[in-house]
Design a protein that fits this description.
Length: 120
């Protein structure tokens, strides 16, 4: 939260006033938010990065909170770290973590996701 409120001068992705009037609950690491909904600490792309896991009838769906698309998650082999990151090793480890955890992966920057009527 401190980084969000006072970002580094060269990092222009954060707008501290976006949280004005919002009741923010800070968590550290992975955390359960509601029954069946968790946030997963996925560092490396941004400071304090998180992904969201939702238990569904078809398995655990994870919305990957890193700058990624379906090409970052090949069917075989390791996930590929995003090209935009603040720490490539942490980003790589985060990608492996969510690939292993997910039954359904929803890459945050995959344009095909926005065209779907439903996500499996």
């Amino acid at each position: 939260m401190n980084f969000f409120r006072n970002p580094h001068p060269i990092d222009h992705r954060y707008y501290p006033d976006v949280l004005d009037g919002v009741d923010v609950i800070e968590v550290e690491g992975d955390a359960n938010i509601l029954d069946g909904i968790d946030v997963i600490f996925t560092q490396g792309h941004t400071v304090g990065g998180q992904s969201v896991a939702i238990n569904t009838s078809k398995g655990k769906a994870i919305i990957a909170g890193l700058c990624c698309n379906d090409k970052n998650f090949p069917a075989t082999g390791p996930a590929i770290a995003p090209g935009v990151h603040i720490n490539i090793m942490e980003a790589y480890d985060s990608m492996q973590k969510i690939k292993e955890m997910a039954d359904i992966l929803i890459p945050l920057h995959d344009l095909s996701i926005g065209k779907m009527k439903t996500i499996p």
